């Protein structure tokens, strides 16, 4: 068993930090936002997940105060869009760094439409989208209390968009059929969900 403290990793044994490979797979936070003048922004985030269900809440964490995080905080809204296998390459294209105000969706040929409850747009081609209102945000601190360059944004889900083709006859969203793409360990690694494991919770 290999053991190391993060700040003292053996760079010969582990030249690439395995942290993201250990905490994997992770849903992709494909977040769309809108500026005050109506310009849209779309970017994928590696650190994203659900954090509660009553009410439903999701979070994403931005390394650096990037456009998506700052626009979510300025507008108080954002939308999460599911990345399925058919959208993987387009999602990856939206990860390019563009000047603030440039539209990543337009640059990649993706169509956005206005939200139903919020002003944040959604990716039309996405099989599921969650409109969110920001309810909490913070700059993360390390164990010594020092501020880091990580910004956590939590949103309450106030609107849900689902592709009817992915609803089963008994009313479930078919996650496996959606083929969600997830972040794996390193910069160029992704996983696609292709196996369902069912286990009944013990009484």
TrEMBL record:
InterPro entries xrefs: Flavin_Rdtase-like_dom (IPR002563), Split_barrel_FMN-bd (IPR012349)
Top class in the EC scheme: oxidoreductase
Keyword Oxidoreductase: yes
Gene3D superfamilies from the UniProt entry: Electron Transport, Fmn-binding Protein, Chain A (2.30.110.10)
Domain Flavin reductase like positions: 21-175
One MF annotation (Gene Ontology) recorded for this entry: oxidoreductase activity
UniProt xrefs under Pfam families: Flavin_Reduct (PF01613)
Protein name per Swiss-Prot or TrEMBL: Flavin reductase family protein
Organism: Nocardioides cremeus
